Amino acid sequence: MNTVETWAEAISLQLDQDGRPALSTVLSHIRAAIIESGFTSRGRITSGLKEAYRPFAIDPSALRDVIEEALRLLLLSGDIDQFATSAGRGYAATPPRRISWGGDKTTLLGAISNNLSEKIVRHIDASETFSDPVVSFDLVAELGRPEWRSILVALGGADAPTGTAAELYSHAQARAASGERFSLDEPEKVAIISCRSEFFGKAESAPSGRWQRVAGNGCFPATIRAGYTNRNVILHIADTEATLWQPPTQDIWRWIVVGQTLAQGDQVLRYDPASSRLDFLTPPPRQAERAALIAGTQTGPWSWFVDEPAYDIIATLMGRPQ
Known about the structure:
Layout: H1 3-10, H2 23-37, E1 40-41, H3 42-52, H4 60-77, E2 80-85, E3 88-93, E4 97-100, E5 105-109, E6 122-125, E7 135-138, H5 139-143, H6 147-154, H7 166-177, E8 180-181, E9 190-193, E10 211-212, E11 218-226, E12 229-238, E13 241-245, H8 250-263, E14 269-272, E15 277-280, H9 286-295, E16 297-300, E17 303-305, H10 308-318
Parallel strand pairs: 4-7
Antiparallel strand pairs: 1-3, 2-3, 4-5, 5-6, 8-13, 9-10, 9-11, 11-12, 12-13, 14-15, 15-17, 16-17
Helix pairs in contact: 2-4, 7-8, 9-10
């Protein structure tokens, strides 16, 4: 075994098929550093990993992408929190806790040091005892109330505890109808979500799935191409006049898409109990993706393996057609 191989073994480094550090390796190194130090700046994380991986001649841009994704997943799961400081962003571990949802597994989150650090999400058997003092939480309590309700209230709408995200979509329609004027003179730059299909598709030069060009009156989630960027908006069209409203965040726009889908009487999830496969049929909002991350294993961009108790929680969170 040469020196490089010895160092790889010493730091438990796994490389992916492209020769980059595996996501699970980078994530576990970051998690361990944050838990050990209590608080770690972003600069220290980046410089520390660059130094640790220097013998492997890893492309800096590739390493940066893996670090970004690892931090995204750690923040999404709730293992760490992000803080703004005078020296830039920094990270600290959240309080130690064990999350359950009535399935065969539970998940450890926060400042817990154990031999599961190499896992993207630290799942353990529900029957397994754990020596460290941790607080147990139900997944529903960990997630809180459906985020679309908080968004609706923040935007000036009325809370709808017995409704679905269709209530948010209705509020967004009103916002778009009284929003800023928009010219439809370049229809090839606009794609709207107006078709009914389980295949969500893409808003490209030839829109697919639920996407199409402007073809009539109505109010639709839409994307507008401007140079090399896209604006995700809610577009209201009445004959030749159009107005729009741009939600403050991408996540709000995703919840509105969920609401539109439910308002049409369509499903936002597909679940196969035989294979335990969950597929999101719209871009998953952050809260729903977090639930799937905590309770399941990701198999594709919008696909996960989750047990039935976890699926029921996610389906309640996302909403079912009424």
